[in-house]
Amino acid sequence: MSTPRAYKRSPALSNSTWYKGILTSQMAGTADNGGALDLVIAKMRRGTEPPPHVHSREDEFFYILSGEMKVYADGEVFQVTAGECMFLPRGKSHAWLITSDESGTIFKIGRTVRRPIPELSLMRRERLSRKLWRPPL
Known about the structure:
The protein is mainly β. Helix content is 8%, strand content 39%. It is built from 2 helices and 9 strands. The chain is globular.
């Protein structure tokens, strides 16, 4: 692996993909920083939220840039609005619903733990699903 270098990046066609109606732009990843973190900007609207799920290898940290959402995590419900953040520990079921009329935009920060397991990380699933999912009409 090469030594990480300073870089500047904006959301663009080259680093963005649609995943089940959510526009994701990968701003940082393993190739950029030696696996220190993943940073994704996700833009979503009501009805495009993922179902409840669990991550076995990575914690997630969201910072809400715009919109409002209810986050369901480990039996609790949190109302999260622009300017607030949410930590979701690995191994705990979680989901969220957009509750505002405007689209929600979040920074998603995580760190993928490097160890071989059979499941795919969220970022890998997003890259593999580019051809399967298209923007909502």
